Amino acid sequence: MTIGAMLGDILESLFKKPVTERYPFERKATPERLRGKLYWEPEKCSGCQLCVKDCPANAIELIVLDKVAKRFVMRYNPDRCTFCGECVESCRFDCLGLSSEDWELAALNRDSFEVFFGKDEDVETLMAQIASQYPGNTKE
Ligand code: SF4
Ligand code: SF4
Question: N or C: which end of the chain has fewer CB within 10 A?
Fold first, then answer.
């Protein structure tokens, strides 16, 4: 490229709007089918464990508190998840989905990569069990 052509490009770009997006200050709507963070609806879950067996990344675990009363907690590790959607396909009760809105998963510490889904009382019960088994290693 000649100096003249280069100067022309520089002058032209001085008066053009930037083509880059000013993320995170400006955001575009995400596509409806974007595969973001997993969500789980515990009320619908039968405890069949199909989603866990079919997950190729070992990113989910169904913790059974009381099978008869259908008290389950799901541990989800977003850092292992490949967002393949296999668990969503496997579930016959439509308990699982990949959010198109919750997708900004970067974090500065590893704690946010271990998520416990479930009814509040069930998650609290599990946290109390963990705290009693591993004092000093409690999850918030
Ligand atoms: S989306 Fe894929 S990798 Fe992520 S939890 Fe489901 S099956 Fe596992
Ligand atoms: S496949 Fe569905 S019903 Fe079965 S354990 Fe997973 S979330 Fe629950």
Answer: C
Structural Rg of the chain based on CA atoms: 22
Round to whole Å and give the CA distance between 3 and 7: 6
Name the amino acid, one letter, at 108. Answer: L
- Given ligand 2 and candidates 38, 43, 49, 60, which is best to mutate, with the most ligand atoms within 8 Å of its CB? 49
Alpha-helix runs per DSSP H in the chain: 3-14, 50-54, 86-90, 120-133
Using a cut of 0.90, tell me whether the model's pTM lies above it: no
> pLDDT tens for residues 42-91?
999 999 999 999 999 999 999 999 999 999 999 999 999 999 999 999 99
Say whether domain 30-133 belongs to CATH 3.40.50.150.
no
Atom of ligand 1 nearest to the CA of 76: 5
Nearest to 60 by CA among 107, 98, 104: 98
Q: Give residue limits of the domains in the chain.
A: 30-133
Token pair listed for 47: 């405890």
